[in-house]
From TrEMBL:
Subcellular location: Cell membrane
Superkingdom field: Bacteria
Membrane topology classification: Multi-pass membrane protein
Catalyzed reaction equations: Release of signal peptides from bacterial membrane prolipoproteins. Hydrolyzes -Xaa-Yaa-Zaa-|-(S,diacylglyceryl)Cys-, in which Xaa is hydrophobic (preferably Leu), and Yaa (Ala or Ser) and Zaa (Gly or Ala) have small, neutral side chains
Assigned keywords, A-Z: Aspartyl protease, Cell membrane, Hydrolase, Membrane, Protease, Transmembrane, Transmembrane helix
GO cellular component, one term: plasma membrane
GO biological process: proteolysis
Role of this protein: This protein specifically catalyzes the removal of signal peptides from prolipoproteins.
Pathway: Protein modification; lipoprotein biosynthesis (signal peptide cleavage)
Record carries keyword Flavoprotein: no
Protein name: Lipoprotein signal peptidase
The organism of origin for this protein: Streptomyces misionensis
Amino acid sequence: MTARTPDGGTGRRTNVRRSEPGAGGAPGARRRIRVLWLVAAVAYALDLGSEVAVVAGLEGRDPVPVLGSWLELRVQRNPGAAFGMGSASTIVFTLIALAVVVVVVRVARRLTSTPWAIALGLLLGGAVGDLTDRLFRSPGGMRGAVVDFVAVRDVSVMNLADWAISCGSVLIVVLSFRGHDRGTRALPGSGPTGGGPHTWAGEHRASLHRVRAVPVRPALRRRLP
């Protein structure tokens, strides 16, 4: 919206441009959503591709040392969570992975931070990777065992989905400690007032008062003879 106002008797007029709510943030929001989906897709593709490769080439064979006994490739079917925990609660971990996917998808369109988009993308890609194993690998029915193959000493055997989830979780903690504890914003009209400091209207209040002065030539005065 554009309005003209007089400017202190200088003979000039200024054009006041007020941006529409959300107009300035829309491209940034779309970019952050693309970042989230890209990170999630890469994490999922790497996890799925690596599992297919190691099952075809390494399952049933001797471990392949990468850094001696500190790091090796060893295929192991894991019905539990990362680090082999909770092997008797496969369905619980399946439901947790499904809940993570639902939550991340719901908050994706409200992200206001690219680092948060990366962190949630890692969580989403890892959760979908584990969920794929739970649903489609033997014995199936939300009880499938994930394929772990990255053995770190004798501490744990993990897959790339576990690494993605771990990295995303660490990044979330770091962002929270650095003050990026609110990676999302409220949608238009949400909340009891719709205009608090963390709502959509509150975030765009400053943009409503942003002006750009454009000088306009004063009218030419006609001289009398």
